[in-house]
Write a structure and sequence with these properties.
It is built from 13 helices and 17 strands. The chain has 423 residues and is α+β, with helices and mostly antiparallel strands. The N and C termini lie far apart (84 Å).
Length: 423
């Protein structure tokens, strides 16, 4: 009886072969010695530092799993298309790993030359065609990609990736890099794409580092457009910037992204940042948690934070996927809309977190408590005006959502004792 040969994928990082991924039948990853010899080599993950030897499945599987959509329906659709198992991330990424989050690309070794040359094409699409694609996505939320696209993105929310050039919008095929992510929003929440843009714009106005977003209607179909911070334009074209989300960095499966499900909390993430990144990243994480509480953002779990990796440097990436629950009516006190994804000083419910909790969070993270509590109050003071400016600057087919959002933010801050009425 013949013995099945190990399956191998080349792991390309920033245009160089970094190593290989093997499934035999368990997953392993090994860096190539030539890559390790480079003075500018960037690790695939902080959980898999540059070193000789073999990284085993406990680290490898959560990492590659995090490159794929959280949605099982999307994975099922891809598996049907390529006749592979939807439960096998290696098999899915064999086909959909040409354009992945960060600077990594996965492919069979016989396709390495095509990947290194960014083989593929860009197909121009009109705003009306993008609107039609948004309509199809609304009708079938698992319909992320079209035939020929080989990009993958993490997360559960429906989306697709496009490339913006001087001539307009394009669908990217093969190994071509994408530059923007287009999301119609979560269908069960009214104007959720507008909500996300307003929340992101408010965070930017308050001085937080966030991905750039724009709210736009494609032939009448609303969407939030997110500029990819892991892609930069250069003279040579579009360059990939390496990143990984915090579940990948901590070898945590995507299904455990929420703290309540056993995923990473603020303390564990702060410890990681203090070990591998800079002091500013620890502060920015705490600041992001404060903003999520103040704006009523319930979904800031570990996969919604990422690290940027460049050589030996690691820092917290710009924030993304920020949105508020406040414009919506929670089903009850135990609703996911009424609490943070990560506890602050042992408390996660909106309206229950006090200066004592913030000081506890800061102390555990190694930050000066009073300085951080003062920053929380500063953010709270600035937030209503920041949101008001974002609403005023955003054209909207749903003007009521902005007014409701602002009114409920003020009520939320007042209830928490963090709002001082003007005049």
């Amino acid at each position: 009886m013949s013995v099945p040969r190990p399956r191998r994928l080349a792991v390309v990082l920033q245009g160089r072969i970094a190593g290989e991924l093997v499934q035999d039948p368990r997953l392993t990853f090994t860096y190539h010695s030539a890559y390790l010899a480079r003075s500018d080599a960037t690790p695939l993950s902080v959980s898999m530092p540059l070193a000789t030897g073999i990284y085993r499945q406990a680290r490898v599987l959560p990492w590659i799993d995090g490159l794929l959509p959280d949605s099982q329906d999307v994975r099922d659709r891809w598996a049907t298309r390529f006749r592979v198992s939807a439960r096998n991330p290696f098999a899915l990424l064999t086909h959909m790993g040409r354009e992945a989050p960060g600077a990594v690309q996965l492919c069979p070794f016989e396709d390495v030359d095509e990947v290194l040359s960014q083989a593929g094409e860009l197909k121009s699409v009109t705003e009306a065609e993008i609107g039609q694609r948004l309509t199809r996505l609304a009708d079938s939320p698992s319909n992320w990609t079209v035939e020929g696209e080989r990009w993958s993105l993490g997360g559960a929310q429906s989306k697709f990736a496009l490339t913006r050039t001087g001539d307009g919008w394009n669908e990217a095929f093969g190994s071509q890099p994408t530059t923007h992510i287009v999301k119609p929003g979560v269908g069960r929440f009214r104007s959720q794409s507008l909500n996300e843009h307003l929340t992101m714009a408010t965070a930017a106005a308050l001085g937080l580092r966030v991905a750039t977003t724009r709210y736009h209607e494609f032939d009448g179909r609303a969407a939030v457009i997110v500029t990819r911070y892991d892609r930069i334009r250069s003279e040579g074209g579009i360059a990939r910037v390496h990143q990984e989300d915090l579940c990948q960095a901590l070898s945590v499966p995507p299904r455990k992204k929420y703290e309540i499900d056993g995923g990473p909390g603020a303390a564990r993430i702060s410890d990681l940042l203090r070990a591998v990144a800079d002091e500013a990243s620890v502060w920015r994480l705490a600041e992001a948690l404060a903003f999520s509480y103040l704006i009523g953002g319930p979904d800031a779990h570990a996969k919604n934070y990422s690290l940027l990796l460049a050589g030996s440097q690691v820092r917290l990436a710009p924030l993304y996927d920020l949105a508020s629950s406040l414009p919506y009516d929670a089903a009850g006190d135990d609703s996911d809309l009424t609490r943070l994804a990560m506890a602050v000083g042992g408390e996660r419910r909106f309206g229950r977190i006090t200066d004592t909790h913030w000081a506890r969070l800061a102390t555990r993270a190694g930050l000066e408590p009073q300085q951080f509590v003062d920053r929380v109050h500063e953010l709270a003071l600035q937030l209503p005006d920041g949101l008001s400016d974002a609403v005023a600057a955003t054209p909207s087919i749903d003007p009521e959502i902005g007014a409701r959002f602002l009114n409920r933010v003020v009520a939320h801050l007042t209830e928490a004792g963090l709002h001082r009425p003007s005049g």
